[in-house]
Design brief:
- This protein is of the alpha/beta class.
- Helix content is 32%, strand content 19%.
- It has helices spanning 5-13, 18-30, 52-65, 86-94, 99-106, 114-118, 127-135, 161-172, 190-208, 253-256, 279-307, 313-322, 334-341, 386-390; strands at residues 37-40, 47-48, 71-76, 150-154, 157-160, 174-175, 178-184, 211-217, 225-226, 244-245, 263-267, 345-352, 360-365, 371-376, 394-395, 399-403, 424-430, 433-439, 452-457.
- Helix 12 (313-322) packs across helix 13.
- The longest helix has 29 residues, at 279-307.
- The termini are far apart.
Length: 480
């Protein structure tokens, strides 16, 4: 593949190499293979269901050890709220009025952002003016990320999504009087996040009697992928330049890799609820962390025994299959056992499937003869395997607790535990022209494919995402 001098300068500016771009184009041409799913994980096979006693014991362990741990909360928050306000834009720009707009208008006073909106409107505002003031000049939510949208109302005033993560961080992700929270944001919204937090942090620090250490990162340009035309030739802008696009949330494995902590909690920016409903979230986050600590301790013990040639291989194999949820081939050996144990570990909360969108938990066959647990999206499942998708009893709410340290205390290089074969290709457009775009393996999908993964059943109350603005009318987001 030949690149112009301008191409080479663009590629270098993104921190990429010509070889890397050629590989991206090759991925477009050959496509990505479907996952080799063998069956859906279930409470009988692959999803741990904890008793109330086990939840309490795991949470207690975490609380007892937290003071000696470095703990951080990682919140992907870079996405714009485009989908959240899509219907509102269609109403303002095209005059399309569906049931969603009727619901919005009829319940405007129930939204936490109503006091802010009301102050911007004339007394005789039309429906068009009200909706326009939400997404355009006024609140300007159509140009803001979800984190800066007012989600909930309290006696002291409205609380934006990012503030709810401050509260959660204080309640389950603090240690030694410090709550560390890392937000991944887009460059254009960085100042908005900083301004809000500068104005609000002191209030939350006083309320919870701790200090916050807030950090930010943006998606790295080196994770961008080049766009191609429908015939897989390089897409060029009207100026003749290559078009690079952000490669989806899978690119955030680079950002996560820079977090140096003993325990990392991962949760999406929009999956928050009101204070009165946070009980299950706090309890199960602590329980997942406590269970992670237990499994990590046992893993490290078995690794040391293997390396000292003192291990009972059958005992190690039983632990891997029963507790780390990896099915071994009959002809496993010491080297395979050690390889499996020496990996990052994640515990993933899984909620019962009640029709919400989200990836499902599956058993997947691996080249080394093992079967491991993976979170799979429908796009990763072949047509002939789609019946397995319908058998899934649970789905992924992006509720992860991660251990990224080795037995000797050093940090894993998380980039070594991804599956590059699990990318995704989609059809997009730019300047009115069709193009094909490529996303990297998703952060909790292929980007963590080679981690040890344990799925744990968690209550639906821990899952309250806001995909469209009308979701804010659900009980999870309304203070009685």
């Amino acid at each position: 593949m030949s690149f112009t001098e301008q191409d080479l300068q663009q590629i270098k500016a993104h921190g990429l190499t010509p070889e890397a771009v050629e590989l991206q184009v090759e991925n477009f041409k050959r496509g990505f293979p479907f996952l080799k799913v063998t069956q859906a994980a279930s409470p009988e096979d692959g999803i741990v269901v904890l008793t109330d006693e086990a939840v309490a014991a795991a949470a207690k362990r975490y609380e007892a050890e937290a003071a000696n741990l470095c703990i951080e909360k990682f919140v992907p928050a870079s996405g714009a709220a485009t989908r959240m306000f899509k219907e509102l834009f269609e109403f303002v720009n095209e005059g399309k009025r569906g049931k969603g707009i009727d619901t919005l208008i009829d319940n405007l006073e129930k939204f936490a952002f109503w006091p802010e909106l009301k102050a911007l409107l004339p007394a005789d505002a039309t429906d068009e003016q009200k909706v326009s003031a939400i997404v355009k000049e006024g609140l300007d939510y159509g140009a803001k990320p979800k984190g800066l949208v007012t989600f909930h109302t309290y006696p002291e005033g409205g609380r934006k999504a990012v503030e709810e993560h401050l509260v959660e961080g204080a309640l389950y992700a603090s240690s030694k009087g410090v709550a560390k929270i890392h937000f991944t944001v887009s460059k254009e919204h960085m100042e908005g996040f900083k301004a809000l937090l500068d104005a609000q942090l002191a209030r939350y620090e006083e309320r919870f009697g701790l200090k916050y250490e807030i950090s930010f990162s943006v998606q790295k340009p080196s994770t961008d992928t080049v766009a191609v035309n429908p015939d897989n030739t390089l897409f060029r802008t009207d100026e003749g330049k290559l078009l690079f696009r952000p490669a989806g949330h899978g690119a955030l494995i680079e950002n996560l890799n820079e977090i140096d902590a003993d325990i990392i909690f991962i949760k999406n920016i929009d999956n928050v609820t009101t204070d009165e409903r946070k009980g299950d979230t706090i309890r199960y986050k602590k329980a997942l962390a406590g269970l992670l600590l237990e499994l990590q301790s046992l893993t490290f013990d078995f690794l040391r025994e293997l390396r000292a040639d003192k291990a009972d291989l059958e005992e190690v194999a039983a632990f891997i299959e029963d507790r780390l949820c990896t099915k071994l081939p009959e002809n496993y050996d010491r080297a395979l056992l050690e390889k499996i144990l020496d990996r990052p570990i994640r515990l993933c909360g899984m909620v019962r499937n009640e029709g919400e969108p989200g990836g499902g938990p599956f058993w997947v066959g691996n080249p080394d003869g093992t079967q491991s647990l993976q979170i799979a999206e429908s796009s990763q499942i072949s047509p002939e395997d789609m019946p397995l998708m319908k058998q899934a009893t649970h789905f992924n709410p992006v509720d992860l607790v991660c251990g990224v340290k080795r037995a000797d205390g050093t940090k894993f290089d998380l980039r070594q535990y991804t599956d590059p074969e699990t990318g995704f290709i989609s059809s997009k457009s730019a300047g009115g022209r069709e193009l094909r775009a490529q996303e990297l393996p998703g952060l909790w999908n292929g980007a963590m494919a080679k981690w040890n993964t344990v799925f744990v059943d968690v209550p639906i109350a821990t899952f309250s995402p806001v995909k469209v603005v009308q979701d804010l009318l659900r009980p999870q987001h309304q203070n009685c």
